[in-house]
Amino acid sequence: MKVVRYVDADGATRVGVSDETGVRPLPVGTVAEMLSGDLARWRELLTKAGPPSPEPVRLLPPADGDMEVWAAGVTYRRSRDARMEESTVVDPYDRVYQAPRPELFFKALAWRVCGPGEPVAIRGDSTVDVPEPELAVVVTASGEIAGYTLCNDVSSRSIEGENPLYLPQAKVYAGSCAIGPGIVPAELITDPGGLVVSLVVRRGGEIVFTGRTDTGQIVRPLPDLVSWLFEEQDFPDGVVLSTGTGIVPDLDFSLEAGDEITIAVDEIGELTNPVVRGKQAMTWLLRRRPRRTEAIASTGSFLR
After folding, report:
1. DSSP state of 102
2. Span between the terminal Cα atoms of the chain, in Å
3. What's this model's pTM, rounded to 2 decimal places?
4. Which phi and psi (to 5°) does residue 58 adopt?
């Protein structure tokens, strides 16, 4: 069972529950609406799915409204070692791996997130680029873990390696984030610390890289990461927090335009995206930007 966003046969965007019976619409317009309360409200809404409807025309990323995607870095030993290998300044990565406070960084607004089958991008000014397959937690406005999804935290190793302060440019750009295929409710995941994470990159139909790890290698408890994220911030529409990667190719590997990335996590599913290069190939994301009238309405009395 997954909560999914999808386009139906009439071209409308809907939210529903996908299970063995098909896709059953939920009585909400957005995932953000489901996450805007506490965990009890999220679970109550899940019980209100209607009868199965025709199969979705296509799936969309399970993030919308004012949802944000954040990410945790250096949560796996492999990630720490890879960051130290690529960087001219190695000390910060070892220190944050062992520190009480985790590395947390903003990744994307909902409208900038790519979904299943949609292209992700590598920067036009980068020379070494990698996918980062990650388990992501989906969190309610109350700070409770509602479910789990997949995140591909596409990154420029060459830019971050040049200077750790370039992290935002290495991580946050058009086409750098994909999530999906849906959100598996937390109560259906028996052991989130024991899930197998895998990655396959194909080029011209041939596998050019594959990797595998498990979430038991994450050095920090997932609720601890969420607690730090909510320490001095509110997320009234909920938030997706990607929990770091344990699969990092050697420095002689880099993504190329035309590659196909498939990431997978046990009990959650697969997320596949083709690769393009440069922001011009991602201008279609601009059509997802909320219209100004919607933005003004959402601010309420603030603008009055």
Report:
1. P
2. 42
3. 0.91
4. -160, 155
